[in-house]
Specification:
heterotrimer, A mainly alpha (188), B mainly alpha (68), C mainly alpha (619), A: 188 residues, mainly alpha, Four Helix Bundle (Hemerythrin (Met), subunit A), 6 helices, elongated, B: 68 residues, 2 helices, binds copper (II) ion
């Protein structure tokens, strides 16, 4: 029996195949967030405790947007084979992503005091930010992986699928936050 | 020639980011000043922002376009 | 010894055990550090299962390919192992045909266990009065029967899709072979969790795991939630693979409207899996979180709402019915034209009806909640959408009838099972209409009427078609024919057993027999029919015994199958039985419809001589 470990289809472009798979995964994952956002409105309507720090929410939103910009620059640089610029930009993305997580941590500390997880708003707040923070965390891990030396060789050969995949995932996490921020912090 | 393309694309990234930040500021102002019935504006802005990221940063048209 | 160590599954088990112990130890250390009592069975088993799962996958070798890719190791050419052929079923192998068989065998094993659970429970309800069972044991058995059967169905359709779709569209393998193997290999631990549930106290919620009961049920509940959560992820990752494969790996000339109906059904099913499985995943996760942490999704004292669970659960679990039945209906559409020697009637309408069912089925979940205290203004819209789904389903039924009309019908075992499936599915569909009408539903809700209705849809939409599929494609998979005489015995006993079991259940339901009760009042006069139902259930079990004897005996010394014993036109029959490892060394060229039976000069596909048996196409 002749096992095929990786299919090399001579009549199809491997990158395009991977891309379709990634987009499908993102589509599926977005329904996770849709389900939790639905939960927020179903349980709490548009209620929001006055102790919620809207300004901090705004600041970390901008931080995440900025990280997305650097991720975009990193991918574009990788596409043009500019490895130095790629590395700086991805490092900046990782730094800003970590800063975002710190911001969420501050929010959580405040949340535990004013709307703990055993209350109505606390339940949806901690669930929604928790699932999102988990995505940010995995995104950071993924970005660290593409900085490993193993990928450098591939970039030199002009194939940057790993970078593209992780950066797309990162942008997706940002898109999710674009909806989560008004859902939690702004509607009333 | 090659690197000039790169610069153009990087500048496009800045423009998109500036737009998104502006949108976010408007969102924040709307969300903090309007106490009732702000959700249609907020959801509209969220959709526009998400579209910008999907289109410019995530290159969603790659899926149905043949080659760049 | 070293040979055994080379079996992925052995390494997986050892690593998994170590990981489980480590995970439990971490939980105890954390709790001690936080100043709590060290042992909390729920948290320890949850984290233990999680760490154990990751370790098991690592031991299995599931991550080797990706780790190598990330670190930039050179790609291995072929793992040219000297191990015997059968060992590939016990390791992390990426060929879609291997994985299809793995899924199918696992599915059948789960069906046996879940069936035995129900056979035991049925003995209790055969007579009024409590004979030998506590209510909790009874409820645990029927709950596990339900949820494990659904898991088995998900495995079964993945098995069929994995084996058939790449062959049918002329691809060499799935789009993501490693991901495909991973999707399969998370299911054995999930089966194990299902089996742990009963010793861990079982659970008394029914398969639906409604809150708040599921929040308070014993530890067995948690194992069930974890198990189905894993199956759910397997199903999501599988659907990514199926969709990408169908979108990107079709052979030259295989336009969308030249695909076999089974592939269309896969497309619709995979979309449903991709999107809606997330909802049941989050619902189960919320129950887990409410059990293990202070969060309160369903407890009104904490700002929760129990109806939320039902919404999230049914947003998945209604479309799930279509996930279960669409591939089965696809199988019927494959089998009927072959054994009628006529083109499939209304190909385009049938192809699109799968998508129609998927789309419509996405908007009907509320019909499960008419009696649950759901927002009452939602009742009428959900009633409407529910009744609407009957339309695309009807398209399929009429297509099969019209295909058989004036055809040269050959009554081989696959066709017999397909015919039973059509009848049973039709009864299931018709009895579903009254359930969808609010006033009737309020009366029959939670009675045996409903139980019988969905067993008709699942037997008609999955079990009988799966049997048809096994009898139809067994020669392709194994190179041997199943015994026709045993097959016909299997078919007749199973069909009779089915009707004896489930038709009395309609009567029972209408006469007041409730679901999920261990005992009923003798004065209601339900004893006789309950006894008949139990006897029917054992007849089905008997037929399954015949079936397994047939499988083993035919595998051992069945007649050798030619490449195309049923004279079918679809692509998988144009290569040898079993197909070569790479399916098609040269991509086949598709030039026409797959169902042109009896039409002179009609050709579906041209397979180059190096790519297969070189046999002529049947007409
Ligand atoms: Cu339903």
């Amino acid at each position: 029996m002749n096992m095929v470990t990786s299919i090399t289809t001579d009549w199809e472009d491997r990158g395009a195949i991977n891309r379709v798979g990634l987009w499908l995964f993102i589509l599926s994952d977005s329904f996770l967030f849709i389900a939790i956002i639905f939960t927020r409105f179903y349980l709490q309507g548009v209620q929001r405790p006055s102790e919620l720090n809207q300004l901090l929410g705004f600041v970390i939103s901008v931080v995440l947007l900025l990280s997305s910009l650097f991720a975009y620059r990193g991918e574009t640089a990788a596409a043009y084979g500019d490895i130095r610029r790629f590395r700086y930009n991805i490092l900046a993305t990782i730094g800003l992503g970590s800063l975002f997580l710190v911001g969420v941590g501050v929010e959580w500390a405040e949340g535990f005091r004013f709307f703990p997880p055993s209350t109505g708003f606390g339940t949806v707040f901690f669930t929604l930010t928790g699932f999102h923070a988990f995505h940010v965390f995995t995104g950071i891990l993924g970005l660290l992986l593409i900085l490993l030396p193993g990928q450098k060789k591939r970039l030199g050969e002009g194939s940057y699928w790993g970078v593209e995949a992780m950066v797309k995932y990162w942008h997706f996490v940002d898109v999710a936050w674009v909806f989560i921020f008004p859902t939690l912090y702004l509607v009333s | 020639m090659h690197s000039r393309h790169l610069e153009v694309k990087l500048r496009l990234g800045f423009k998109v980011f500036a737009t998104l930040t502006a949108l976010k500021i408007i969102e924040y102002v709307v969300g903090t000043s309007i106490n009732r019935g702000a959700w249609p504006y907020l959801s509209m802005m969220a959709v526009v922002g998400a579209w910008a990221i999907l289109h410019y940063f995530m290159h969603i048209p790659q899926l149905w376009r043949r080659k760049e | 010894m070293s040979t055994i160590w080379k079996l992925g599954v052995i390494r997986g088990i050892v690593f998994g055990l170590v990981g489980t112990v480590a995970g439990m130890a971490i939980t105890m250390l954390l709790r001690t550090a936080l100043g709590l009592s060290a042992w909390n069975s729920g948290q320890a088993t949850a984290l233990g299962s999680f760490v154990g799962l990751i370790a098991y996958l690592g031991g299995l070798g599931a991550f080797n390919g990706w780790v190598g890719w990330v670190l930039g190791w050179p790609e291995k050419e072929h793992d040219a192992t000297e191990l015997p052929n059968w060992t590939r079923y016990f390791g992390f192998h990426t060929n879609h045909k291997t994985i299809g068989v793995q899924y199918m065998v696992t599915s059948l094993l789960v069906i046996i266990v879940a069936g035995i659970y129900q056979l035991i429970a049925r003995l209790e309800t055969a007579q009024p009065g409590l004979q030998f069972m506590t209510p909790r044991t009874y409820n645990s058995l029927i709950s596990l029967h339900g949820i494990m059967m659904l898991g088995a169905v998900l495995l079964g359709i993945s098995g069929m899709i994995n084996y058939l779709v790449p062959l049918m569209i002329g691809a060499r393998d799935m789009a993501f072979p490693r991901l495909n193997a991973l999707s399969y290999w998370v299911t054995p631990p999930s089966v194990l969790f299902f089996l742990f549930s009963l010793p861990a106290g079982g659970f008394d919620t029914g398969w639906t795991a409604y809150a708040p009961l599921s929040v308070r049920a014993p530890l067995g509940m948690q194992f069930m939630l974890l198990a189905f959560y894993l199956v759910g992820w397997s199903s999501i990752l599988g659907s990514v693979n199926f969709l990408t494969t169908i979108f990107k790996l079709r052979a030259p000339g295989m336009g969308l409207f030249r695909m076999p109906i089974f592939v269309w059904a896969t497309l619709a099913t995979a979309f449903l899996q991709l999107i809606f499985t997330q909802f049941v995943g989050i619902a189960f996760l919320m129950v887990l979180l409410e059990r293990l942490t202070p969060l309160g999704f369903f407890d009104p004292n904490k700002g929760g709402n129990v109806i939320l669970y039902q919404h999230l659960f049914w947003i998945y679990s209604h479309p799930a019915v279509y996930i279960f039945v669409l591939p089965g209906l696809g199988v019927i559409s494959e089998v009927v034209p072959v054994f009628s020697r006529k083109p499939l009637f209304g190909y385009r309408a049938v192809a699109l009806s799968s998508l129609g069912i998927a789309l419509g089925g996405a908007l009907v979940w509320g019909h499960h909640m008419f009696a649950a205290g759901m927002e009452s203004w939602l009742r009428i819209p959900f009633m409407f959408t529910t009744l609407l789904v009957a339309v695309p389903t009807g398209v399929k039924i009429f297509s099969w009838l019209a295909t058989m009309w004036l055809g040269k019908i050959h009554l081989d075992t696959p066709m017999l099972f397909a015919l039973t499936a059509i009848v049973v599915f039709l009864i299931g569909g018709i009895t579903g209409v009254p359930n969808g009408i609010v006033p009737v539903d309020l009366y029959v809700h939670d009675t045996y009427w409903v139980t019988s209705h969905f067993h008709h849809t699942l037997f008609g939409g999955f079990v009988f078609p799966m049997m048809a599929a096994i009898y139809f494609w067994f020669p392709k998979v194994t190179g041997r024919l199943l015994n026709e005489r045993l097959g016909k015995v299997h078919w007749s006993v199973m069909t009779a057993g089915f009707f004896i079991t489930y038709e009395p259940m309609f009567w029972l339901g209408l006469n007041g027999m409730r679901r999920r009760i261990v005992d009923y009042d003798p004065a209601m006069g339900l004893g006789t029919m309950n006894l008949v139902t139990t006897i029917g259930g054992y007849l089905i079990a008997l037929s399954m015994l015949v079936f397994f004897i047939n499988l083993v005996a035919s595998l051992w010394r069945g007649a050798t199958a030619s490449a195309n014993p049923w004279r079918s036109r679809t692509l998988e029959w144009q290569v040898s039985s079993p197909p070569p490892g790479e399916n098609f060394p040269v991509p086949p060229r598709v030039v026409g419809s797959p169902y042109g039976y009896g039409i002179p000069g009609s050709v579906h596909v041209i397979v180059s001589p190096t790519g297969g048996s070189g046999e002529k196409q049947a007409t």
